[in-house]
Amino acid sequence: MRQRTAIVIGGGIGGLTAAVALHRRGWEVTVLERAAALEPVGAGIALAANAQRALDTIDAGDAVRAMAVPQIRGELRTPRGRRLARTDSAAVVRRFGGPVVVTHRAELIALLAGRLPEGAVRTGAPAEVADPGDATRPDRPARVRLLSPAETAETANTANTANTANTPHLTADLVIAADGIHSATRRALFPGHPEPRYAGFTSWRLVVPALRRPYAAHETWGPGGVWGSVALHDGRVYAYATVAVPPGGRAPDDERSELLRRFGDWHQPIPEILAAADPAAVLRNDVRSAARPLPACHRGRVALLGDAVHPMTPNLGQGGCQAVEDAVVLAHRVATDRSLAAALDAYSRERLPRTTEVVRRAERIGRLTTWRSAPAVLLRGAAIVCTARLAPDLALRPLDGIADWRPPGGTYASGAPGARPAHPAR
Asked: Which residues does 365 contact at the CB level (< 8 Å), separation at least 6?
């Protein structure tokens, strides 16, 4: 039988997971990444138990768990340092079957890329879908147009037709669009569908060297803003912040200075983290979320995953987790269903309702963090304190049905020697 082929547009976490999952199923996979190297834009990433179980299906879950930092507790605080609630890591394990692992995105990218054959990942290779193909017709593969490094799909679409007609093309049985929140593939396949909308707040992310003394992982909620800090396994600290500001803004000097103005007088270790931060390494991004679910996660022979299909706010820590889920479900479907058309239909049916609900829950929590008025902030804090006292595990309830998810199939995808059963599906 002819080896089936797949092209993945985008070398982020979701795209690489999909590539590894298909490679382990015997597919020939090519990953096209527009960046010059696999150096991800981002800092830390939280991987809850659902993502770890998904990674078990490609034999990467244990490697991720090895990056875990034992977190005895996590705390929710006010800017002055008063503790509102405490999350017991053991309670998270009891409820969802595993802890949350926070690691650096670069480490996860390297882990996934290292499971692909040499040459499978092509960097400096922007691409666009030229023809989605027809999943019901073997003679209609999908076609991908390779762009020049300086081009984007948008500039290619407005360029002279004679020029773009001469650009190289690749064909594949399946194309996976993992090209992010501003996905050109989504716009091409679903023209007129609303673009992701601004969620009402902007985020900053940074990683700093180890602090002088350890602090408990914490998230601090103030008027219209949130700060979070968590240690990574190598001693460095990942920090993030969100503030309810108009979109499109930039600091007049640098983003570290902007964070100092907004968070510099909050409790420790926030001032210490900011003092250690490299101004050039502070990332700022407007947070956007899906305005409306797409009608499907695929069209023709092209499947979308991750932020390309369901961008969400970071408030549940599920953006990367859902991309990983997408990847392993898609690989499972195309490997087990009778036809590619049936597999892609099943992929959309399974993923759309789930990810739409995750987007909705994350947005609901995100709106709480934008409250600014003193009475509203006091009311919010009092509600958190009462909840923590009367029902300590209630704060974990938004992740019910999300972090306890288990992948389909129940075994590692490869069937390679030494493969062992993964967590059973449910």
From this structure: 313, 315, 316, 398
